[in-house]
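User: Here's a chain of 286 residues. Predict its fold as tokens.
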Amino acid sequence: MPRRRALPAAALVAAALALTACGGGSGTASTHDNPYGLVEPGVLSLATTGSSQPFSYTDKSGKVVGFDLAVYQELAKRLGLKTKVKTYEFDSILPMVSTHQVDIAMNSIADTDERRKSVSFTLPNYTGTMDVLVRNGSSIGSGAAGIKGKKVAVQAASMSALYAEKYFTDSTLVTFPDTGAAVTALRSKNVDAAFLDGQEANKFTTQYAVHTTYATADPKNRGAAVVVNKKQTALRKALNKQLRAIVADGTYQRLFTKWAPQEKPTPQLAFLKKYYAEHPSNSYPN
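Assistant: Prediction complete.
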């Protein structure tokens, strides 16, 4: 994308005066016409990468699709807004929102303290799962009780390892340097199960004779959410309201099942419903 030349300061001042003169109306009228303070009134613009399947990726026709795109389109529809999708490198997405060049960003973006310094977030719309993998034909059933007394492979220093240390106290944890080594141990029958990041687990189920028997989410994390400019309070409140609605009426499960078929929706819904109940105000995170 070609860079635009910056205008001289004098030109910027003149342009600002011209806009003021032409406006001729009050701030109230502007707010009435654009209640969410959108970059373009009536249009909810989105920044995403278009390269993060299943959340945001480019299909064979060149269209940007995915789970986050489907949620975005649903939210815009419910707010009576048109859509406009713009793709960027991931490290450019948050600055585009913080400088209000686009309205929101979605790309499975984790809500963290560091990111909250420059942008705001809605309620979460996704959380990464951690999955228990077992060999096909294993007698280990679903649920945490299934791995009680079993040898479980985990990746050293990973979030799943920390979770397992806290919650799988009745299992014997065996540490490996990476997920590939953990799955190799599982396939070689040196361990009974492997506990991995959900996306990693999904990858291995397509390569080897293993499957997910149990998936869970860390209750301590804030998940991934819609990124919003700090000043767009009205937009954030409206999005929070509609996120609650799509989870409550079954739309979220339908979209998740369509766009992320390898992941089970149950842990997602359990996490979101619990989190939403714990944060009942649509002013979240304020």
